[in-house]
Design goal:
By secondary structure, the protein is α+β, with helices and mostly antiparallel strands. It is built from six helices and three strands. It is elongated, with a radius of gyration of 30 Å.
Length: 132
């Protein structure tokens, strides 16, 4: 059992989408005083999983910390939305990239226009000079 596992268990039992807690309430839940750095540095309450072991406690419970008020010594834990079921990959059905053909039907070529004809037949002469 990890040092902050009581906080994980407490948060998992909560029904609402947010849990407002003071630092003192968190200390009562875990059973010991928070480290001095938690009292002085807002970054200690960030949601980076590599931040500290306590961060893993609320992240593992499915929450994120928000509205950290260092002066009032309180914060909000907000439940993360459940990830929707993964969307099917359209390329898996056709074997083609999903962007292939995304503009189909949006470009029209007027009748009589030859797309293979150079737009400016003399471009080579201007760029390279007359080579004859």
């Amino acid at each position: 059992m990890g040092k902050y596992e009581p906080l994980t268990e407490f948060l998992q039992k909560q029904r609402g989408g947010e849990v407002r807690m003071s630092f003192a309430q968190i200390e009562r839940v875990v059973g010991f005083k928070l480290p001095p750095v938690a009292q002085r540095h807002r970054a200690w309450w960030s949601n980076s999983p590599t931040n500290n072991v306590m961060t893993r406690a609320w992240l593992d419970a499915g929450f994120r910390s928000e509205q950290v008020d260092m002066t009032a010594r309180k914060l909000v834990f907000r439940r993360e939305k459940q990830a929707d079921a993964p969307k099917p990959d359209p390329a898996a059905k056709t074997g083609r990239h999903p962007l292939i053909g995304w503009m189909k039907g949006t470009v029209t070529i007027p009748e009589g226009v030859d797309l293979t004809e150079p737009a400016d037949p003399e471009w080579g002469e201007r760029a390279w000079g007359d080579r004859e």
